[in-house]
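Field log, afternoon session.

UNIT: design team B
ACTIVITY: writing a sequence onto a fixed backbone
BACKBONE:
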C-alpha cells in the first residue's frame, strides 16, 4: 500500500472523528443553519467526487469516486429534505382548519 494512501486515509478518519465530535455538541437552535451549510459543503463534495471519478487514474480511485458521488449526493438530498422540514416547523401564522 502506498504511503500516500495511508496518510490520506488517516486524514479522512481523523476528519470524520473531529466532525462527529463538533456536530454532536451543536445546540438545537443552530441545527438548521448548520444543516444548510452542510448541504452546501456536500454539493462541493459531489463536484469533487465527480472530478475524481472522471479521471480514471486507477480502478480503485474510480470505484471510490463513484461511491463518494452516491454517498454525498444522497446525503445532500436528504439534508435538503430535513432542512425543509425543520424550517416548516418554525413557520407561524397559519390558521388551523377545523
Amino acid at each position: 500500500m502506498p504511503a500516500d494512501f495511508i496518510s490520506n486515509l488517516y486524514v479522512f478518519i481523523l476528519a470524520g472523528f473531529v466532525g462527529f465530535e463538533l456536530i454532536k455538541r451543536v445546540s438545537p437552535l443552530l441545527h438548521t443553519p448548520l444543516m444548510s451549510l452542510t448541504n452546501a459543503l456536500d454539493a462541493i463534495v459531489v463536484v469533487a467526487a465527480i472530478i475524481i471519478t472522471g479521471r480514471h487514474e486507477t480502478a480503485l480511485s474510480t470505484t471510490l469516486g463513484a461511491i463518494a458521488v452516491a454517498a454525498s449526493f444522497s446525503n445532500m438530498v436528504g439534508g435538503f429534505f430535513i432542512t425543509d422540514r425543520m424550517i416548516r416547523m418554525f413557520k407561524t401564522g397559519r390558521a388551523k382548519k377545523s
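LOG NOTE: The first helix runs from residue 3 to 24.
NEXT ACTIVITY: expression trials, pending approval
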